[in-house]
Design goal:
Domain Class II aldolase/adducin N-terminal (chains A, B, C, D): 10-189
Enzyme class (chains A, B, C, D): isomerase
Family (chains A, B, C, D): Belongs to the aldolase class II family. AraD/FucA subfamily.
Helix content of chain A: 40-55%
Pfam families (chains A, B, C, D): Aldolase_II
Distance between the termini of chain A: 28 Å
Order of helices and strands of chain A: HEEEEHEHHEHEEHH
Keywords (chains A, B, C, D): Metal-binding, Zinc
Largest sheet of chain A: 8 strands, mixed
Oligomer: homotetramer
């Protein structure tokens, strides 16, 4: 296997620490994957393994149909959904799945999160949409994710009665979207508990989204510390 | 004492760290126990001792009537309830008790948690049931747990005006059930605060439960790190 | 100064870590004090000093009128209230003050926390009462605490529009009461958000309180780890 | 560059740890700046850099129009707002921006936080006001902050549909205001969820504010640990 797979193993193992840091996951219920650039491969968490025990060595390498190429353990039970997204959306380099609490509460009601915050306009460009209910075990979840997110600004979808899937140009961007999705879901929940948000003009949402996608952060990524 | 008791002491002492990690307990109000395989013994937390101070050496070994066999300290004041469960349910290898906040709020209202999430269907197979109010100090709590959970899919019961008891094939499984019970209780609470969940079909709940019990995780447990 | 003062300095400095561990305090807004056994002295946090910077050496020793006996810094701005409690209640060995969030919300509404949980019956023996609004800077807060708690089972009082004061036979017991007060306040809040708690019989509350005060924990304190 | 800039770099880098400690920020969405005393310079966080990776060396030095004077990275995308505040309010030595959850929920509804807590009277002297909606990228946010806070007791403003900006005589004071703003916003939210707060007399609010600004803490700052 190439160096590239080695690096992706390291990235995927390490990024799971962001899911626990931000409280997006309980026990083993959430996972990160990344596409191996230039190959028909992805790297994903093993199923049912504690976040404390993840390491580059126990990440699972699968092909884009979810079949294991390297690894002694079974891959995440959500592997089929990740794989479907990589097959259908070539621009996607990373996928994250969580049941983060506030976002999942919106998903349980089947309600999209409307956009009343500049932070949501920045990252999601408008509402965070609802995807269909789908059973695990085949391509249904993957199809629901792709049908909802293809052509949508939002990198996050709330799968009904289930939880959150996010996508990104790489795994780090997908993790960021998962973190921001829960942050926005919580703020929107609290806002609504005591009244109604002040509406934002669509032109302002559009302007914020355009700026954030192009101006925020560093032109080149900052050097590693 | 056999090696087995030594190992169970280690497991029980260590698993209490999951109760604090997930915020399921305040001060000393929660405990884990495990059956010693093949013996009429259980290992449980000492009463009123801080989680920081737990070690394999200060765990208490009791018989299945709650009488101390090994240990200098008094066992958990919930020992009688744990012991009753081990006597009545031979398939149970671990018991956990917490007053985790969201689950206890459902318990205070005497409301079962209805199943509107795939994560709840996976782990609990449907609703998380309410058990009776019972006073500490005899077999009443144990009887209430067993009467509620015997023949029920759920490994967790919400004891009215009190808190949560969970069971598992071993102590780790019971701790997982306690973690997931609070996670599900919190999401269900938040869902209901702003409306009603979309119902899930019973067939979907059944399908998810069947799959999770048989397919999730590793066929054999992953090697320790 | 005697060894005793040295030990009390260590205890009081260390116990502040429980306030931050349980999220009871923001910035520097909360404090622990202890009576020095057998002396007309108390040890308390210095005013406005970060919890990270507390040590036995920078604790302040005051007489029971709040005048500094040892220490280079100003004592907590709540010193007068602590001192009043020690003067009026000779059985009290420790006092804690916080603005912990859920308890303070009940205090802001001027509502006592009714007892619908076994954990509250255990520790508080019934409701957690409301004390009067009182301005800082003299004996008014101390008088309000004592007037509310004298003869009451509860070691915690919710001072109106302000926050929580707790008492105990020693500082550790007062800290425990502060931790359990917030835990109970949060569970009671969540309970009420979706309906009404099932009432508990007064006889059950009495029975739980009597048992917990006499049976819970170790007959002698467990040895330090 | 002078020693002073070096010291301000250290202070600003270190203070970001308080934003994460108190959960005021998600991912990279929040920033601290400080004026360099006696110079027309400010030090601010680089844009889009993780809090884990901040160090004195990668802080950005800007002039008071937001143009970079020292630093290899782009400054925070909120630099223009910070700079405007320093230009317009010479007494301000530090500025903080967060999207802390509870405060931002009040901001999304366009509601000021009314004062019903002694802690709010102490730090904010009354309500925490709402500022206008303003788009990022020019002086509009800065103008909104200054128009709201000039002549107001509160060091915090809730910018509509956006988040919190706080000011202080130095960066530490602005961070404290950001911490206390979220603490007060959360308590006020919880209070209102189950009823109405008991009103506080304006004279009491005034008295608390006057005392806290003059008496709380140490006459001279305590020595560093």
């Amino acid at each position: 296997m190439s160096q590239t797979v080695t690096e992706v193993r390291e990235t995927v193992a390490a990024l799971h620490a962001e899911l626990t840091r931000y409280g997006l996951v309980a026990w083993t219920a959430g996972n990160v994957s990344a596409r191996v650039p230039g190959k028909e491969l992805m790297v994903i968490k093993p199923s049912g393994v504690s976040y404390d025990d993840l390491s580059p060595a126990n990440m699972i390498v699968c092909d884009l149909h979810g079949d294991v190429v390297e690894g002694d353990l079974s891959p995440s039970s959500d592997t089929a959904a990740h794989a479907y997204v990589y097959r259908a959306m070539p621009e996607v380099g990373g996928v994250v799945h969580t049941h983060s609490t506030y976002a999942t509460a919106w998903a349980a009601r089947g309600e999209a999160i409307p956009c009343h915050l500049t932070a949501q306009a920045d990252e999601f460009g408008g509402e965070i949409p609802i995807g269909p209910f789908a059973l695990i075990g085949g391509d249904d979840i993957g199809k629901g994710i792709v049908a909802t997110l293809a052509g949508h600004r939002s990198p996050a979808v709330l799968m009904r009665n289930h939880g959150v899937f996010t996508i990104g140009r790489d795994a780090r961007a997908a993790v960021k979207a998962a973190v921001m999705c829960e942050d926005v879901a919580r703020t929107a929940h609290l806002t609504r508990m005591l009244g109604e948000p002040v509406p934002m003009a669509q032109a302002d949402v559009d302007s914020l989204y355009a700026r954030y996608q192009n101006v925020y952060g560093q032109v080149a990524p900052p050097p590693a510390p």
